[in-house]
Write a structure and sequence with these properties.
It is a single chain. This protein is an alpha+beta fold and 413 residues long. The chain folds into 2 domains: 3-109, Phosphorylase Kinase, domain 1; 116-411, Aminoglycoside 3'-phosphotransferase, Chain: A, domain 2 (Alpha-Beta Complex), CATH 3.90.1200. Helices cover 42% and strands 18% of the residues. The protein contains 17 helices and 16 strands. The chain has helices spanning 3-12, 17-31, 81-87, 116-124, 131-152, 158-162, 171-175, 178-182, 197-200, 216-226, 277-287, 292-295, 297-303, 325-348, 356-370, 382-396, 406-411, and strands spanning 38-41, 50-56, 62-68, 96-98, 105-109, 154-157, 187-190, 193-196, 204-207, 210-211, 240-246, 255-258, 263-266, 273-275, 306-311, 314-319. A 5-stranded antiparallel sheet has the order 1-2-3-5-4, with helices on one face. Strand 9 and strand 10 form a beta hairpin. The longest helix is centred in the C-terminal third of the chain and has 24 residues, at 325-348.
Length: 413
């Protein structure tokens, strides 16, 4: 079974769950020394590029499985949970695994601890009322994360850094075909109209009265240039980059929280390794704070007010989407307890580049722009397509006036 067939199963889970279960059972039997009786995929909103669910063996024992589906990947090594455990991360270790490219799937002992994704959504929907407790646990976890960053921060040879799996989430999505397949030459359907991406790419953006400096086309080219994996991140050494041991994809769907014990554990280390600490922060900064529309597009569209018009060469957008207070609290915890100490440490070691902010923001740009295909009318209502494109500009570009986005305000730009 190839990576394309895994992608077929990932897509099929939302349309024909029974067929998806049957195909995945065949995959597990063929690729793992594991006696499977039943497979139950659990289609979740958080599963944008993955599959997860339950396996039952002939003796009735239940297990949990997870696989990341990354079409057009050029990375050959995934799932390095050992490096995380050795660095001090509280990480759930698999008991069976297949890590071959195109066949990445891990099996874990069954557990019922809720994901942080579910807990935060329950707080937003008033299904639980312990926000202060949850945020306190996140703050403690962020302090522990910074301690791991500090202890593992060291120069890494450029060639080794370029092989890190994390680049699949950013640079390789830009250059490996995903960007071209999603957008180039594609009609983008917006509320009440449409525009071809090739025309949209050259337009300026004004979002909620904030004028941004860069077009989508410029952001793509800037990201390709600055996020190129073999590019040196240290000005003082031509062959090295600064790196930490990181999870790489630590959004809330890959974190499980035990509120009673006050602890969190990491899960699904598909992109774990030694890589840039700024890249390591990108997925939690965006997906935990700004991306609820990506997970619940039709639900968010129902309450979203958004409108647009083109004035000259500028796309004018006004909308009322804002992250919930609990998500803003998560953002501030990550910035105050991890990013700011990191910047101070890099500066003290003469390892901080002047364009660190641009590097971080261009990686953030990739999250709304390339995690999912915003031009997919089956997945996204036109209101959400427009919101996602506007969010891409907000993440990647910088305002040209005195008004600032939430992100730029919190970053202190």
């Amino acid at each position: 079974m190839s990576d394309k067939e895994l992608q077929q199963i990932q897509d099929l889970q939302f349309a024909d769950l029974e067929a998806a279960n049957a195909l995945l059972k065949e995959f597990i039997i063929a690729n793992l020394d594991f006696q499977v009786e039943t497979v139950q995929i659990r289609p979740l909103a958080v599963s944008l590029n993955s599959l997860n669910g339950l396996i039952t063996t002939a003796d009735g024992t239940k297990y949990f499985f997870k696989t990341h589906v990354e079409p057009q990947s050029i990375i050959n090594e995934y799932y390095n949970s050992t490096i995380l455990a050795e660095a001090g991360y509280p990480v759930i270790q698999p008991i069976h695994s297949s890590t071959e490219w195109g066949k990445q799937l891990l099996i874990y002992e069954f557990f019922e601890t809720p994901s942080m994704f579910k807990v935060i959504r329950d707080l937003e929907m008033d299904r639980r009322t312990d926000a202060d407790r949850v945020i306190s646990i996140q703050e403690k976890a962020d302090e522990q994360l910074w301690d791991i960053y500090r202890q593992t921060l060291q120069p890494l040879e450029k060639a080794a850094h370029a092989r890190s799996p994390i680049h699949q989430l950013f640079y390789h999505r830009l250059t490996g075909g995903r960007f071209a397949n999603f957008y180039q030459g594609t009609d983008i359907f917006l509320p009440g109209g449409k525009i071809n991406y090739n025309s949209l790419a050259s337009m300026q953006w004004n979002i909620n009265g904030i004028q941004y400096q860069d077009t989508l086309g410029q952001l793509v080219q800037q990201a390709i240039g600055l996020l190129e994996p073999s590019r040196t991140r240290l000005r003082t050494e031509k062959s090295v980059s600064n790196a930490i041991v990181g999870h790489g994809d630590a959004h809330n769907g890959n974190l499980f929280i035990d509120v009673d014990r006050g602890s969190m554990v990491y899960f699904d280390p598909a992109f774990a390794g030694r890589h840039s600490p700024l890249l390591d922060l990108v997925k939690p900064l965006f997906h935990n704070v700004f991306a609820i529309w990506m997970y619940y597009p039709r639900e968010i569209a129902e309450s979203l007010s958004i409108r647009w018009e083109i004035k000259g060469d500028t796309m004018m957008v006004e909308h009322d989407f804002v992250p919930s207070p609990v998500r803003v609290a998560l953002l501030r915890s990550k910035l105050e307890r991890v990013l700011k100490p990191l910047l101070g440490e890099l500066s003290s070691r003469c390892m901080l580049e002047e364009n660190w902010r641009e590097y971080l923001k261009l990686a953030l740009f990739c999250c709304p722009f390339l995690t999912m295909n915003l031009s997919d009318v089956k997945k996204f209502p036109p209101e959400i397509t427009l919101l996602g494109l506007a969010m891409s500009v907000e993440m990647g570009s910088t305002s040209s006036g005195s008004m600032k986005s939430l992100l730029d305000t919190e970053l202190g730009s």
